[in-house]
Write a structure and sequence with these properties.
- β8 and β9 form a beta hairpin.
- The strands form two sheets. This protein has a six-stranded parallel sheet with strand order 1-4-3-2-5-6, sandwiched between helices. Strands 7-8-9 form a three-stranded antiparallel sheet, with helices on one face.
- The protein is α/β, with parallel strands linked by helices.
- It is built from ten helices and nine strands.
- The chain is 37% helix and 18% strand.
- The termini are far apart.
- 33% of the residues are buried.
- α7 crosses α8.
- The chain binds adenosine monophosphate (AMP).
- The site of adenosine monophosphate (AMP) has 17 residues, from α2 and β5.
- Adenosine monophosphate binds next to α2 and β5.
Amino acid sequence: MRLIFVQKKGKNLNTAVINNITDIKNTVKEWRKSNCTIGLVPTMGALHNGHASLIKKAKETCDKVIVSVFVNPIQFGPSEDFDKYPRTLDKDQNLCSNLGVDIVFAPSANEMYGENNRLNNTDLTFVYPPFKFTDCLCGKTRTGHFDGVATVVLKLFNISGADYAFFGQKDAQQLFIINKMVKDLNLDIKIIPCPIVRESDGLALSSRNKYLSDEERSWALSVSKALKQIKTLYSQGVTDTNILFDTAISILNSNIELEYLEFRDYNSFEPIKKLKDNSLVAIAVKVGKTRLIDNIIT
Ligand code: AMP
């Protein structure tokens, strides 16, 4: 009998998934023997082209690439979507294989934190970035969120021993806080910011876009349209943030609930009254039950 092996399209599962911290550390130790540079791409999975752009940048920059896939319980509040968050590890592994990722690190919450692995864990050593940067924008409604983010990111840096870590500008506040942590704690890692990847109609890619109905998705398009109009007006000389705010409100679909629309200096994160080069315009909205964020940098 002749056996024919057919490789299923897209089923090239070469990238190993490691769940265990000791195994990652041992693998990295082996890599270090041949002086490899290591890149880390931290994610919560449900990978899309936004994540893929970070992975591609990591592949260009480093000899070895680790993608972490971990829905981090200590960055979710009790009424947030931790249980509902999309988990698609097989698909994520497939995408990572196709992009040439060396390892997917997908630990359990127990592996990372032990049994008491929620935001209210008082037994865990946390990283608390400065309150003035964690209590504004997304942190205003997501109490403790950035403490959970900074804590898991520092753990991932330590576990992976990475030389480079890749973060999206889509999460501008997160990127600012991570950069601050790296600087303040003298961490030996270089943070590489990566631009926002959008659908062709402007919607910023997000794992949470999966929650949107077709109708909600059409409303959500007004978010990137409003930001784009701010950029256009700025290029025409309009700098007054009150005027720019009102313009954005007039463009946002009336079914959308605005959480914030803020203007900040991109380097210092201080609020600004007049837009200038290198300003961040950041927005968070609720579309139905789905919370979305987006931003532009002038
Ligand atoms: P997440 O899985 O949502 O925690 O995101 C993991 C990383 O991917 C973060 O650094 C995000 O900023 C980045 N990211 C998410 N969406 C996008 C996007 N549309 N474009 C670029 N980077 C993104």
